[in-house]
Design a protein that fits this description.
alpha+beta
């Protein structure tokens, strides 16, 4: 039995609840769907932007990442790429807070200070004696 080559169809999605994982899953599916997909009330976190950047390197057609409306025009196929994944903000923040609590020193390699403004603002201060 031969099944026809069927693809997901683009659609408009409004997410009642902003969700990083939901936004990312829909972006990945929509990248290979037929037609245009619009994600409304999409997550804006750096991880979503990072995934969009990687998918674009692979040949996806994505605009609006980092805003609450992301548009994806499906493509036939994606190619391989090399991509450095954005650092884990929670792990970075925990390391900074541990430094603050112990008064020690810490050096984070490949960290992104631009993603941790609030943490750095509160942790770079000298530890009170």
């Amino acid at each position: 039995m031969h099944l026809p080559n069927r693809r997901l169809q683009g659609a408009r999605y409004y997410m009642d609840l902003v969700t990083v994982t939901g936004t990312e899953n829909l972006m990945m599916a929509a990248a290979l769907a037929e037609g245009t997909t619009v994600l409304e009330n999409a997550a804006k976190e750096p991880e979503v932007v990072d995934l969009a950047e990687m998918l674009i390197k692979m040949g996806a057609n994505i605009t609006g990442a980092g805003t609450d409306v992301i548009t994806i025009v499906g493509v036939e196929k994606l190619s391989g790429t090399t991509h450095n994944v954005v650092c884990d903000r929670i792990e970075q923040a925990l390391i900074w807070w541990r430094r603050q609590m112990t008064g020690g020193e810490v050096k984070l390699l490949n960290a992104r200070a631009d993603l941790l403004d609030a943490v750095i603002e509160n942790c770079v201060k000298p530890v009170p004696k």
